[in-house]
Design goal:
This is MFS transporter. About 85% of the residues lie in helices and about 0% in strands. It is an all-alpha fold. The protein has one domain: Growth Hormone, Chain: A, CATH 1.20.1250. The chain is globular and about 50 Å long. The model has no long low-confidence stretch (mean pLDDT about 85).
Length: about 375
């Protein structure tokens, strides 16, 4: 097996299990709310705590990697995932749940940083990055689907947590085998000026802001949509959970399609098309309570939503290639959106407009995604 495959296989598997972990919190949120007697603000706070940890990973990971190396850092921080999932399964007191969600986010963010860095540094094409995120979508699909299977089969909701704990533990073991070049860290320190060249590039910030608004929507889709579909009262619990799973099947197809088209079309044009149709289907989703239209809108949203994040990373790829700090900062900008938005949705949902009005608030995010996609497309045409 080549060095590239020895790097890619553990990373792709880890992203699969990371996809399951990212969705499992939203999948079990409705059960956690009932069992721990949480209100929407506290539940939204847990989602935001998870996103805060994801952001902190962008600072914690490079710092620790500079001390002990990237491989040891990845093993250490990815091990937080199974540990903190077990704490959540125990339904610990709220302060401990918040801490567990923060540490869980650090684990998830660290996995994301190393996987995106490895694929960007050793390949860097939109196809490879879309394939990586398609594998993430496979795991994301399985989390709500298996939750529904376990609950329908009479099993406790904790069984999906235990499943993800096992898979995440295997990914930690996989990281022990990857042949990461630790000399890159030393090289980055010597070439500090070159390493930080992206800071003076406005296109880097446009990419980061687009991902900021994107991840805000994604975290709300992952964390709030099952609860939202149940609250509007037009579908059963199983239908709502399975609809989210179907969405992630469509996301897999969308990422494969985006990866294929990236060989034929400009990645900026693909981003513009994806964001445009995301706006269209999101408006369809929030404008009706008709079950058929909502189902179509969710599937359409998933398909065009799919390629935005990996294509955004690919758009910034050349600016941050070989830079741990660059990838960390890009993902940190995205993570900020994931922190702020779910908490705002939770606060609005506890107010007069309820969860339906809170979901409509996400229209701002999708509009801003389109705005920055247009800027990126126009600037790319001028180059």
């Amino acid at each position: 097996m080549s060095k590239k495959m020895k790097l890619f296989v553990p990373c792709y598997y880890a992203f699969f299990s990371n996809g399951m972990m990212a969705l499992v919190l939203g999948s079990i949120l409705t059960y956690l709310i009932k069992e721990a007697n949480l209100n929407y603000s506290v539940a939204g706070g847990l989602l935001s705590a998870f996103a805060i940890g994801n952001l902190l990973a962008s600072f914690v990971n490079p710092y620790i990697a500079g001390k002990i190396g990237r491989k040891k850092t990845t093993i250490l921080l990815s091990a937080l995932i199974p540990i903190d999932l077990f704490i959540i399964a125990l339904v610990a007191p709220v302060p401990i749940l918040y801490l567990a969600c923060i540490l869980l986010g650090i684990g998830r963010g660290s996995v994301s940083i190393i996987n995106n860095m490895v694929v960007n540094d050793y390949d860097g094409t939109p196809f490879a990055l879309n394939l990586l995120h398609m594998v993430f979508a496979m795991g994301a699909f399985l989390a709500p689907f298996l939750t529904s299977v376990f609950v329908s089969g009479g099993f406790n909701w904790r069984y999906i947590i235990y499943t993800v704990i096992i898979l995440s533990t295997i990914s930690v073991i996989g990281y022990c085998t990857i042949p990461l070049d630790e000399n890159i860290i030393k090289k980055e320190k010597k070439e500090g000026i070159k390493e930080n060249r992206f800071l003076k590039n406005p296109d880097f910030y446009f990419c980061g802001l687009l991902l900021f608004f994107y991840l805000g929507v994604e975290n709300c889709v992952n964390g709030w949509f099952v609860t939202y579909f149940k609250e509007i009262g037009i579908m059963s619990d199983n239908y709502a959970t399975n609809l989210v799973s179907v969405t992630w099947i469509v996301i897999m197809l969308g990422r494969l399609t985006t990866g294929y088209l990236s060989k034929k079309l400009s990645k900026y044009k693909i981003m513009l098309v994806n964001c445009s149709f995301t706006v269209l289907f999101f408006i369809m989703l929030i404008a009706t309570k008709d079950l058929t239209i909502i189902s179509i809108a969710v599937v359409g949203l998933g398909f065009f939503f799919a390629g935005i994040y990996p294509t955004g990373i690919a758009n910034a790829g050349e600016m941050i290639k070989g830079s741990t700090g660059g990838m960390s900062m890009l993902l940190a900008m995205a993570a900020l959106g994931g922190i702020i938005t779910p908490q705002i949705v939770g606060i609005i949902a506890d107010g007069a407009v309820g969860l339906s009005g809170a979901i409509a608030f996400l229209s701002i995010n999708v509009a801003m995604m389109l705005f920055f996609a247009i800027i990126g497309f126009v600037r790319a045409k001028k180059i």
